[in-house]
Amino acid sequence: MLSVLIIGTSILVFSTIGGYLMLQRLREASNIVGTTKAIFAADSGIECELYRYNKLATSTVDCNTASGAATLKFDDSQVGVSTTVLTTPSGQLISIQSIGSSIKSKRAFLFTTSTPSTTGGATPGGGVAPGWPRRPGRPRF
Questions:
Q1: pTM given for the model
Q2: Stretch 89-114: mean pLDDT, rounded?
Q3: What pLDDT shows up at residue 21?
Q4: Containing H/E element for 123?
Q5: Is 128 helix (H, G, I), strand (E, B) or coil?
Q6: Who is most buried in 6, 29, 97, 133, counting CB within 10 A?
Q7: What's the distance, CA 81 to chain centroid?
Q8: How many beta carbons lie within 10 A of that of residue 98, not counting itself?
Q9: What span, in angstroms and rounded, lies between the C-alpha atoms of 50 and 53?
């Protein structure tokens, strides 16, 4: 009698875990549209910042959609992009991080150039944007 109870409980536990894992996979698969929008938003953020960097003297472009006056706009109001630019003190571009978001999906791209060999190294922001946002437990881009 005890063995039947143990076997029945173990089958119930494994079925519950299996059902939960299947539910998570279905949620990921059904969010493919949001993921695609987030990827294209992140790509747009990289392109916008590269344009802004190359046209800095004459550019009034704002690539961050979080700031209400963004030049970069999307048809879907739930799609956004956040960009961070890393430059040297002399203004040479080192890298651009772009995080695109749509609904519950976030996707990131990192564009890097070869680090210029200047003394003093790179400074986060360099007058263009704030430094890298680091959060504990988050993956490095």
A1: 0.60
A2: 87
A3: 93
A4: strand 123-124
A5: coil
A6: 97
A7: 8
A8: 26
A9: 5
Q: How far is CA 69 from CA 14, 50, 64, 102, in A?
A: 52, 19, 9, 19
Q: Ranked by mean pLDDT, which of 25-34, 62-71, 87-96 comes out on top?
A: 87-96
Q: How many CB atoms lie within 10 A of CB 37?
A: 22
Q: Which burial class, exposed, middle or buried, applies to 50 when counting CB atoms under 10 A from its CB (0-12, 13-18, 19+)? A: middle
Residue 123 reports pLDDT greater than 80: no
**9-32 average pLDDT score:** 88
Task: Give me the residue label for tokens 């995080």.
Answer: 99
- The conformation of residue 66, written as its DSSP 8-state character, comes to T
Helices marked H in the chain: 2-30, 32-54
Provide the percentage of residues in the chain whose pLDDT is more than 90: 22
Which residues partner with 96 through β-bridges? 85, 111
- CB-based contacts of 65, cutoff 8 Å, min separation 6: 72, 73, 74, 79, 80, 81, 82
List the domain boundaries for the chain. 1-30, 32-141
Question: Cα–chain-centroid distance for residue 49?
Answer: 15
CA 86 from chain centre, in angstroms, equals 16
